[in-house]
Design brief:
The structure holds 2 protein chains of 2 kinds.
Chain A (H helix, E strand, L loop, with lengths): L3 E4 L2 E5 L4 E7 L6 E6 L6 E6 L5 E4 L2 E5 L5 E6 L8 E7 L5 E2 L3 E6 L1
Parallel strand pairs in A: 2-11
Antiparallel strand pairs in A: 1-3, 3-8, 4-5, 4-9, 6-7, 7-8, 9-10, 9-11
Chain B lengths: L4 E3 L2 E4 L5 E6 L6 E7 L6 E7 L2 E5 L6 E5 L5 E5 L8 E8 L4 E3 L3 E5 L1
Parallel strand pairs in B: 2-11
Antiparallel strand pairs in B: 1-3, 3-8, 4-5, 4-9, 5-6, 7-8, 9-10, 9-11
Classes of the chains: A mainly beta, B mainly beta.
Chain lengths: ~110, ~110
């Protein structure tokens, strides 16, 4: 069946360093969404990407959708302690599948 | 504008029992999806309801069933509970772009 893999599973960074999480699908995605879940919280919608090669920015966050629409990435520039949480990609097309998430920990 | 409301917030059940979880979607949202999230893992899709019909279903056994009412609220029912059903159950509503999640129901099966 269709799988959505995310790497890395965990990432420790020093405050101010950059962070990237990658999402890879075994099948072509119609669109992909990104969510952030704070410890003890629930997923919060960040963005949706639809077009091949699409790049969107939200302040320090940059989201990319691969040309083949099988992968996506989220990059955070100059991390802050408020960025702590688990970042999930989500195939909002047919299978509504979440990736396993990347847990970001930021050392002040 | 209220977001997604789930009840109860916490629940403890015994193996073999049945449980019903409830979800009120965000105002204006007509689609409700249910997810199971085990500790440290990503949410696993259970099913999605739209116009009172199950539109999609993930890889969950028939013990998991649901319902959507005319006001778009939804219920998730789990029969014959197993210890492995212990998890956070998340409800999400949507109207096109993005899903709005509730805070979840923490189910513990003992």
């Amino acid at each position: 069946g269709q799988q959505v893999m995310q790497i890395p599973q965990y990432q420790h960074v020093q405050e101010g360093e950059d962070f990237t999480t990658y999402c890879n699908s075994s099948t072509t995605l119609s669109n992909i969404q990104w969510y952030k879940q704070r410890p003890g919280g629930h997923p919060v919608f960040l963005i949706q990407l639809v077009k091949s090669g699409e790049v969107k920015k939200q302040k320090r966050l940059t989201f990319q959708f691969g040309e083949a629409k099988k992968n996506s990435s989220l990059h955070i520039t100059a991390t802050q302690t408020t960025d702590v949480g688990t970042y999930f990609c989500h195939d909002a097309g047919n299978m509504l599948t979440f990736g396993g998430g990347t847990r970001l920990m930021v050392k002040p | 504008d209220a977001g997604v409301t789930q009840s109860p917030t916490h629940l403890i059940k015994t193996r073999g029992q049945q449980v019903t979880l409830r979800c009120s979607p965000k105002s204006g949202h007509d689609t409700v999806s249910w997810y199971q999230q085990a500790l440290g893992q990503g949410p696993q899709f259970i099913f999605q309801y739209y116009e009172e019909e199950e539109r999609q279903r993930g890889n969950f056994p028939d013990r998991f069933s649901g319902h959507q009412f005319p006001n778009y609220s939804s219920e998730l029912n789990v029969n014959a509970l197993l210890l492995g059903d212990s998890a956070l159950y998340l409800c999400a509503s949507s109207l096109g772009l993005g899903y709005t999640f509730g805070s979840g129901t923490r189910l513990t099966v003992v």
